[in-house]
Amino acid sequence: MRIFMAALATETNTFAPFPTGLGSFTEFGLVRDAASKVNSPSAEIMVTFCGLARSAGDDVVESLCAFSQPSGKTVRIVYEQLRDRILDDLRDAMTKAPVDIVLLALHGAMVAEGCDDCEGDLLTYIRELFPQVVIGVELDLHCHLSATMLSQADIVIAYKEYPHIDMRERAAELLDLCRRTAMGHIRPVAALVDTRMIGTYPTFREPMKGIVTELLALESLPGVLSASIAHGFPFADVADVGTRVLVITDGQPDVAVTAAKTMARRLYVARHALRPNMPDIETSLVRAADLPGCTVLADYADNPGGGAAGDSTYFLRTLLTRDAQNVAIGCFWDPMVASVCEQAGVGAMLPVRLGGKSGPASGEPIDLHVEVMAIQPQHSQAALGVRRSLGLSVWLRARQGTGCIDIVVISIRAQTFDPDAFTGLGIELSSKRLVVVKSSSHYEAGFAAVAKQMWSVSTPGALQLAFEHLTYTQRDGDFFPRIDDPWAVRGEPAAQLFDRSTRGWTSSP
Question: Could you tell me the pTM of the whole model?
C-alpha cells in the first residue's frame, strides 16, 4: 500500500477574543515530513500512523503536521495556506505513484474566518481531486461531526476517552479499517444521529464512564466496524455544534442505524446526569479544608485547552483573601511576568502584576510581592504521552498575611496536564494541602497519582457551563439543556445514513 499522511488540527472557540494565526501553529512545531521531531497531539497520531504503516511494509508519504493550542477563529489566509500545502503535497505524491490511502489527523472543531467546517472543506478538496482514494480521518471527540466530513471520507473515527488517552489506539483502528477498505474486504456504511444535546462529558466518571464501556461493547456486535460519540465542542457558534453518534458497519445499513439510535437514546436518557454539576470556588475550598491529603481542584473556566487565556485571577484572588497556606496554583500564562522574573534572577524579591491581561473574562490583574524561587528557560510537562513545551517558566512564592502560595507562571499558553508542570520547577506536591490547576478534565490522568481527591470547579471566566445561555446563531434552539426534552418537541431524531458506494445520504426514521 502507498499511504499519504497529514495533520492539521486546532479546536476553535468562536467566542474567544484573539485569533489563531500562523504563530500559533509554529509555536508547537509546524513541520513537513518530520512529525517525530515535534510534540503535539497531531504529531503523536502521525507518528503512530507512520510506525504502523512502515512496519507493515507500506510506502509512506508524510506531509504537513500542524497543531495549534485552542483559541479563536483561524485567520483565513493561514488556514488556506496550510490546507493548500497538504493538497499540493498530495498532488505531488500522486504524480510519482498512485496513493491508495489518505490518513488525516484532524480535530473536527476547526473554524476559520469564512469557513465554519475546515475539516469538511479540506476533505471536499481531496475527494474532488482524487475520487477513488480511500480517506480515513481521526478526530478529537470534541468535534462537530458534519455530514460533509462523512460524505467525503470513507472512515471517520473519534477518540473515545476524555481525557484523551486513546489516540494511538484509534489511529491503529483507523489504519486497519482503511487498509481493509482499500483491499475491498469491507464496504463501510455510516449512520449518524444528532442527539440534540450540548454538553461536556468527562469519561473517567459516571455516567459517561459506563457509556463508553457500552460503546466499546457495541463494536463487538456482528458487522459493526466502529462506533464513536462526538461530544461536540460547546464553545463554538457553528451549525453542527452538539453531541452526535456515529456507527460504521460492513455493508449493513440497518445494523448501523439501529446501533446509532440505541446509543443516542442511551445518552439522551442520561442527559440530566451528564450535565456538569460543579461546586463554585468558595464551596470547593470549604469542602477541601476538611479532607485528608492533597486535594486537586481545576479552574474549569480558565482552561487554555478550551480556548481560554490561562491568566484568570479569580481563583488566586480568593485564595489570597483567605490567607491560604500550603497551596500551589498554575499554570498562569503571563510571559511578561516570566520575563521580568528571569531578569531579576532566583532569590529576587520584587513586585509583579500577575494575570488579568487578556480581557474581561480574565478578571483584574493582581499586584503581588513575590520571591523568585526557580527559573526554567525551557520548561515542559508530560501531556498524554508526549512532552509539551511551556517555554520560559518561573516558580513564584507569594506571601500575604499568614498565607503562602506557590505559583507557576509560563510563557507558552497551555492547560495544566501533569504534576511535573510544578515538580519540574522544584515545587513538591506531596506535602501540599491544595493544588489548583488551570484545566478542565485532562489533568485527571496525570494528577491521579498525586491527589487524594480531585474535582473541577465552576469558576468565572471564558468557559461558562450554562450552555443554554450561550449565544448560538447558527443552529436552532431546540437542544438540551435549553429545552428539557427536545425529543418531545421535535420527535426522536432520525439517523442519517451514508453509503460510500453511492456517496449519498438518506434519512432513516
Answer: 0.94
